[in-house]
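REQUEST FORM: STRUCTURE PREDICTION
Request ID: SP-0412
Submitted by: Lab K.M.
Chain count: 1
Length (residues): 352
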Amino acid sequence: MASKVSDLLNQRGIAGEVKPKNVAGHGKQNRKALGDIGNLVSDREIATGKDIARKAKQEQQKQSKAEVIIISPDENEKPCKPHFSRRGSKTFTATLRARSNAANRLKDAVIDIDAADSNNELAAVEYVDDIFKFYKAVEEEEGRIRDYMGSQPEINVKMRSILIDWLINVHRKFELMPETLYLAINLIDRFLSLTMVPRRELQLLGISSMLIASKYEDIWSPKVNIFVCISDNAYCREQVLAMEKSILRQMEKLVFYFAELGLMHYPVVVLNRPSILAASAVYAARQALKKTPTWTATLIHHTGYLEDEIMEHAKMLMKLRDSAPESALRAVFKKYSDSENGEVALLPSLAD
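STATUS: Completed
RESULT:
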């Protein structure tokens, strides 16, 4: 009995209280962050929790590396290097930067061929894009040339080739701009597609076209007398100038021809407005010259008429033109059969 009492006393302190063992808040005991109600955790449990956290972090790093997107705009280009933050994960800013770099590489692949002329005011680099857009827009309307050899009784393909070969030598001798040669040949073909030219005037057409082209493209244009000399005086100065006018004024003269034919027709003049006659004459001239499209948005804007509003009037003018050679009233036909008016009255009709 005494031994049991002594044992009990040994377990009590001076105040007679039992010394607590592993009581929370005393000594260097550890707590769980959000454990059970007792909030006690052993050293073994703490070690196990650290291991779990470490493994979770490692798994997270592996996953973030696996999800890195390699941006490569082209299979021949080197893949972009992934960028990671200090914690090992790829940042949003780095992703955007990588995508931007890839886009810039694609943009840089287009070479600015006009950069070398950036300081050349004559090159007009700032207008190059707009110029080429315009040329493409009008290429179908004005630039295409129909097959005309069938309508030229005195000219064939071989004669044309001989003329072009000679003009290339003339162009080189005069040291003209490259564009001058191409424009001159284009003028020749366009004129031949609209007008019958005798064999004896084919070279005259060539030098007159070169004269016009040189005025348009070159700073210094050869004088008319130089072209006369280069043709071995086969033509005089007045003939060259007359052909030049014929090339340049054909569309204008043809419009006047249709309009004056309309003046003789009572329903066209009296029963309609003058603007109807003017617009119909332009439409008929473009139809005769095989311009496509016959009526454009530009013409609609400036005349104020849609194609349907003037088509019947234009057909009437074209009938008058077809009957003009056999008509007893021939004043208009004779007037526009003259070389001064480009001989537009002699152009083949649409039915030919």
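NOTES: The two ends are 147 Å apart (CA to CA).
Reviewed by: T.R.
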